[in-house]
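Issue 218. Parser rejects a valid record. Input:
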Amino acid sequence: SDEPCTSADPDLSAFVITGEHETDFTHGATSAELDSDVQVFRNVSDASRDFKASATRGLLTCLKTAFAKSLRQSHVPGKVTSAGMGRTPRIGAQAVFYRIVATISPTNGLPRFRMYADFIAIRKGRSQASLMFISPLARVQGQLGLMRAVARRMR
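Output the parser choked on:
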């Protein structure tokens, strides 16, 4: 369900989005997932103020809660073991990075392993882009290179 997250529910109604697109990709061999979202705002001010209102520690709490909920709903035995937020490396005019790590405890005799969820959001001009990488065993490599390539295409 799309229940509101109480730790990060800013009023974004003043900011006008004029275009948006979402793409999802799953790599079959590794089960890694990539979800990308792009939003174009009416002007740079709307994009900047929306980003500032949204990219908070409260969003980290929401992402962590949503990740734990998705594990439960998928009947994956595990728990979130760490979560963090950073503002580097700097890409675009504004950037934020969130990482969530869960430890998965299979019930079929396989050893425990880690599941990684990295969320990177940037703003450049009047556009915002976000990429979420979810992968078992190891972080998805090349995340920053991909985000820099996305930033080069933003206006």
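Fixed in the parser; the record now loads. The mean pLDDT is 89.
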